[in-house]
Amino acid sequence: MTLEENLARVGGYLKQFQAGPIHHRIGGQDVLASDGRTFDSLSPVDMSPLATVAQGTEADVDAACQAAKSAFADWAATSGAERKRVLHAIADGIVARKEEIAFLEALDTGQSLRFMSKAALRAADNFRFFADMAPSARDGRSLYGNNQLNVTNRVPLGPVGIITPWNTPFMLSTWKIAPALACGCTVVHKPAEFSPLTARLLVEIAEEAGLPAGVWNTVNGMGEVAGKALTEHPAIRAIGFVGESRTGSMIMKQAADTLKRVHFELGGKNPVVVFEDADLERAADAAVFMIYSLNGERCTSSSRLLVQRSIHDRFVEMVIEKAKGIKVGHPLDPATTIGPLIHPVHEKKVLEYFDIARAEGATIAMGGEKIGTKGCYVGPTLFTNATKDMRIAQEEIFGPVLTAIPFDTEEEALEIANGVAYGLSGYVWTADVTRALRFTDQLDAGMIWVNSENLRHLPSPFGGNKASGIGRDGGDWSFDFYMETKNIAFATSQHRIPKLGA
Ligand code: NAD
User: Fold this and answer.
1) Residue 247 CB less than 6 A away from ligand 1
2) 265 an active-site residue?
3) Ligand 1 atom with the shortest distance to the CA of 228
4) This model's pTM is above 0.85
5) Least enclosed by CB within 10 Å: which of 178, 202, 288, 312?
6) For ligand 1, atom 12: residue with the closest CA
7) Where in the chain is the domain with CATH 3.40.605.10?
8) SS3 labels along 25-41
């Protein structure tokens, strides 16, 4: 398909948002903001408004939390087999509307269609994966003690709040919401204000698939108002949050008074460490993929390139050669790899790092400037001659921007890799398995891939160390967060009970 054909198709999908504002979905009803306020969702392609959206107030969030609270008892008591059936039906609904989801997501976020079509399908996989686990969610263990048999089981926590960011928002929302529903929790979702379109489709699909009203509620709006109210609401037992580290820290404070459980997936400044004995061709392909796919707006992007000095110049040249072929353009153009960044506010932040790089004395070996005058377009960028303490080597830029730093020894590579506030993911390239074992043992990151790009495996734990997060998602780790573990001890004998006062 051509860009022109895709533009015509997306025009059809956008019509549903032209009749009026995107409503909140509360207790199975479409609801506008209590004060009638709305905000516009803009396309980063050209800043044109795609939709107006209800701007959530504290009262709206309260209504959604009450709806989730009322729906909880019935949903928690619904059999695992039935929850499994409904979640598979949601996955079917996502697959049936996969093109619409991918097209709208691309236009709303600027992420290219080639990646958004995969993200829509991954969202369906997330639902299927947790659907299949639903029947065993409450299972526990039995533990023998002296004169007692301990039986553990798990019960769903209650209504939970899910707050999501604007990067791949559809897929990420399903990653957080599917396990909550699978284990019997009810949900209030606050999507990112920069990308609200597909969150609306998602809750619609879920209700059409048979999810009872009130089990899943969506309130749009600003983080400081709607998001904050959700984190402070007494009916909400836990907050699953994906976003920036500093927002995570605010949420922790906001949630403290109501003693909420929190789960944070936060920022990263992830190293890809390339030793001289690595398969350089594969390592270069992976490094380019991990920083320049998804516009570099990806928490696990390999934004620091640590290369052994003996191969540094050659490897950097390989990265530049490969990146030169990357097309920057309209996200609905099938040939595009990098689309516009999400919003002018974020674009400004990324562009500022080009000035910071120059001021710090690094070299801009590729890119480093805005492309065109319309839309938030930035090309693949590479900083060289950087040192480990520069801001471009320490701070999350969250764009298609890579900082290369040479190292001489394994010890030095480790020191640089661990010398940041973050610890989300790491990528290690070496042919020496003993070194890989030694290095990964010391690398302070929640997820490490050896001789590979980020290849996800849903049963494996996903999450970060240090400022990159608290807790893990994936497999049973997700259920552990959304459930309470209970122990029941049964006496197995007429053991002696202390007689006080006898
Ligand atoms: P953000 O923190 O600005 O916003 C995320 C969400 O939090 C939005 O819905 C926002 O409205 C809400 N929010 C903002 N202030 C709030 C408050 N005081 N209380 C409650 N909610 C509030 O993040 P972003 O810019 O949308 O997303 C990009 C960030 O997300 C990057 O740092 C990226 O690394 C991170 N991220 C992490 C992962 C991961 O798995 N570790 C995945 C994706 C994105």
Assistant:
1) yes
2) yes
3) 19
4) yes
5) 312
6) 223
7) 3-138+154-266+468-485
8) EECCEEECCCCCCEEEE
- Per-residue tokens: 366: 């590729």
φ and ψ of 332, to 5 deg: -90, 0
3-class SS letters over 147-159: CEEEEEEEEECCE
Does the annotation count 299 as an active-site position? yes
Q: What is the pLDDT of residues 278-312, one digit of tens each?
A: 999 999 999 999 999 999 999 999 999 999 999 99
Given 232, 299, 347, 395, the catalytic residue: 299
**53: amino acid identity, one letter:** V
Distance from residue 244's CA to the centre of ligand 1 (Å): 4
Distance CA 105, CA 164 (A): 14
Q: Is residue 373 very low, low, confident or very high in pLDDT (cuts 50, 70, 90)?
A: confident
Give the pLDDT score at 59.
98
268 lines ligand 1 (CB under 6 A): yes
Query: 246 near 80, Cβ under 8 Å?
Result: no
Question: Is it the case that residue 233 has pLDDT exceeding 90?
Answer: yes
Tell me the pLDDT tens digit for each residue of 16-51.
999 899 999 999 999 999 999 999 999 999 999 999
H-helix segments, 78-160: 80-96, 98-109, 113-133
Q: Where in the chain is the domain with CATH 3.40.309.10?
A: 271-450
Per the CB < 8 A criterion, the answer to whether 83 and 216 are in contact is no
DSSP H helices, 391-461, are 391-394, 410-418, 433-442
Summarize the confidence of residues 110-132 as an average pLDDT.
97
Model confidence at 502: pLDDT above 90: no
Q: pLDDT tens digit string along 377-393?
A: 999 999 999 999 999 99
244 lines ligand 1 (CB under 6 A): yes
Per the structure block, which two tokens stand in for 401?
């921007």
Q: Does domain 271-450 have CATH number 3.20.20.140?
A: no
| C-beta 228 within 6 A of ligand 1 | yes
Question: Could you tell me what percent of the chain has a pLDDT over 70?
Answer: 100
Which CATH superfamily includes the segment(s) 3-138+154-266+468-485? Aldehyde Dehydrogenase; Chain A, domain 1 (3.40.605.10)
CB–CB of 196/88 below 8 Å?
Answer: no
